[in-house]
Every structure is written in structure tokens, then in C-alpha cells.
Amino acid sequence: MTRRQLALGALIAAALVLPACFKKPAALVADDAKRKEIIEALVSNPAMRAEVLDRLIGPPGDRVATIDRILKDESAAGDLVARIMEQDRGKAIVASKVAADPAAKTFIRMLMLTGVMGESMTQQQATALGLGEPYAFGNQNKTMRDLKKVGAVIDAYAKAHRSEEGPRYPVCFAFNNLDKCLTEKLPAGSLKDYRLSDAWGTPFQYHTDKEGKEYILVSYASDGQYDDLGKVGPTESPNCDIVFSNGDFVQWPGWIRKNDIR
């Protein structure tokens, strides 16, 4: 462990364990630069993650503000939570705290609503903890945002290659993962900054007709299975596929307003 990590570890411990000795814990992470330093230290040090996780989701009540400050950045929160939940100890601590402490359950629910819990557990496990709805909502919302971003890249390509007969999307007649065909048809690096899998960890699927007049981007949703339902509009189950086609959602969770997805 480097001297810098040791110093940050001591600083985090002081803020989380001894709030009365350090004014307010939230004050430590009010500054974005300092918050990013703390997150970096947590993510890079497995021993520190296991220790701090136990403190983050326990009392006292002032930690609510600290947690909010540290985890308000979705990408940083996602990275931190994913790494913690990779460990059996991390999963056990979260499960036990959620079962025993209403405040911890609120914290986990907040993470689930952002989608950062992702593939760390199954829909069935989340439901067993009494958190099935926020887990499904968070993953669906995150997946829809990612589908729309990838769709925008495809639509931009079609606009640039428009013919007299209309847009021409990158033709991939076989139904397959994005990296099997689509990334080869788009300009190099077009999708390098985008997530190519849904929040449950299953690769997005892409398919067009033979002329490239229509395309569909598909997430297999919580069950990881292709439903073959077609364009059915709003759906009622977390297992139903999410489908983005020609610039719009044509199949999506009915409890999410698709126009709110940015």
C-alpha cells in the first residue's frame, strides 16, 4: 500500500467512524476532487473496501449524507459497488445489513434505483430481499439509457449514408452481439465509449433487414432470454425484452415513460 493510500485510508476512517471529531463527515466529501480521491482509494484497495463497506451501511445517521456525497456520481458508484459485490464477503455484509437494518435497506434501495447494482444479484434475489421493484427499475432505466445512446450512433450513421429511398442502417442480418457485426460496419471506435451490454450483464443484440431499412437493438432483460415478442409497446414484466428500433423504443417497461430517457 502506498503512503498516499494509507493517508486516505486514515482520512476515510476518521470521517466515517468518528464524526464527532471531524465536524461533519459530509464535509470531507463535499468537494468533488476530494470525493473522487476517496472513491479511487476505495476501488483500488480490496482490504479497505471490505472494511469501509461495513461502516458505510451502518450507523450513525449522519452517514446518510456521507454516502450521498460519495456515491452521487453514477459511474463511480457503479464501479465501487460492482467491485464490492464481486466478493463473497461484500455480498454477505450487504445481505445481512439489509435484513437487519431499515436504514441500510434504504441505502441499498437507493443504489438499486440508479442501476449500479447491475449484475451483482439476480431479480429473484432482489425480490427475496423485498427490493425487487427498485432493482428492476434501476436496471431497466440504465439499460434504456444505454440502448438509446448506441441507437443514436446507428441513427447518425444512417443519416450520413441516406439514399433516395431513405436511411441505410449498418446491415447485420444475423441476430448477434454488437461486437460480432455492428462494430465492424461502423467507423472504427464509434462505440468505444459505450456500454455494449445491459445492466444485467448480457450483451445487446443487433439485427436489420437485408436492405438495412430497419434495425432493432435488444436487451434480453432480467431473464437473459430472447422473447421473440415483436413490437408490443409497454410491457408488464421485468423479464420482457427491451427493444429500440429506428430511433425509438418500440418495446419497453410500462412503468417507465420512454420519453423521460435521456
Describe it.
It is a single chain. The chain is of the alpha+beta class and 262 residues long. It folds into 2 domains: 3-114; 138-260. The chain has 11 helices and 6 strands. It has helices spanning 3-17, 25-28, 32-44, 46-56, 63-71, 74-85, 88-100, 102-114, 123-128, 132-160, 182-185, and strands at 176-177, 205-208, 215-219, 233-235, 242-245, 248-253. α3 packs across α4, α3 packs parallel to α6 and α7 crosses α8 (102-114). The radius of gyration is 21 Å and the shape is globular.
Strand order of the largest sheet: 1-2-3-5-6-4
**What spatial form do the alpha-carbon principal axes imply?**
globular
Radius of gyration: 21 Å
Which residues sit in consecutive blocks of at least 5 with pLDDT less than 50?
4-25
What's a quick, concise take on this entry?
The protein has eleven helices and six strands.
